[in-house]
Amino acid sequence: MTTPEPITRCGFVALIGAPNAGKSTLINRLVGAKISIVSRKVQTTRCLVRGIATEGASQIIFVDTPGIFAPKRRLDQAMVTSAWGGAGDADVVALLVDARKGIDEEVEAILAKLPQVRAKKLLVLNKIDTIEPPRLLALAADLNARIDFSETFMISALRGHGVDKLKNLLGEMMKEGPWLYPEDQISDAPLRMLAAEITREKIFERLHDELPYQSTVETVLWKDLPDGSARIEQTIYVMREGHKKIVIGEGGRTIKAIGQAARKDIAEAAEQNVHLFLFVKVRENWTDDPERYREMGLEFPHGSKSSTAKSGTRSK
Fold first, then answer.
1. Binding site for GTP: what residues are annotated?
2. Residue 144: its pLDDT value, please?
3. Residues that constitute the known binding site
4. I need a labelling partner for 221 at 20 to 30 A (CA). Which of 27, 93, 158, 237 fits?
5. At residue 314, does pLDDT exceed 60?
6. Which residues form the domain of 219?
7. G5: where is this region (predicted)?
């Protein structure tokens, strides 16, 4: 008598929330590997990043969305549209709220639109170690009075508290069906895109508030070499000549440090040695260039014309 095949489950879970609610930290914790960049600067996630986790017989495909906020620029608009699109396509939507901040204007705006999403909804209160229990319980009660959440979880994505319980329930909530990805795959993002995101993270880490948000990174070349290593060339686009000087730094020291840090994480993600070459180009209005949006996996909000790159500097 043959043993019946175990029932498998699979589905999509969208993590939504205001900027800096901790979505990227949580998705990396749930997946067990770095697949989304983390920064203390808000709005660092720009596109839909999918992380793939296994929980028993369930495959959970997590979608880390850009933070939802009031869009002021074209790039902002594309990011927010992408976030709500990810929520609309998911089987389960988990609203992540920074417990320390509570219900601010950005959370209020999400709560106003969330009833339009048909998927099952979970409330996840993050950073619970930063708030007193009475305030935490009052916040949970207030949010549940506004939205019909199936479950409420209280977690610390950074420390891992409560994350296993959340992952276990999500596994149970997935629909019966075959897995969409191989068992050992943790992300559907191409390595070229992940490598660009890693470098962008290192720029944020190194420059903090010195460089405005209007910078992006593209992987323009990924060539596997005969010795098993890879040659990677990336372009960092900035808006001003002054921004370019900030990225390069005195004597090229800043861009060298960025490259060294990025090279280490990219090699770990790619599981091979890499030779990383960084170029900095000024493209004054890159946020008006549809090609840049396609590279980030975003839909271009039509309106303005694009511009062309002015200059470039290389660093190894």
1. 17-24, 64-68, 126-129
2. 96
3. 17-24, 64-68, 126-129
4. 27
5. no
6. 191-315
7. 155-157
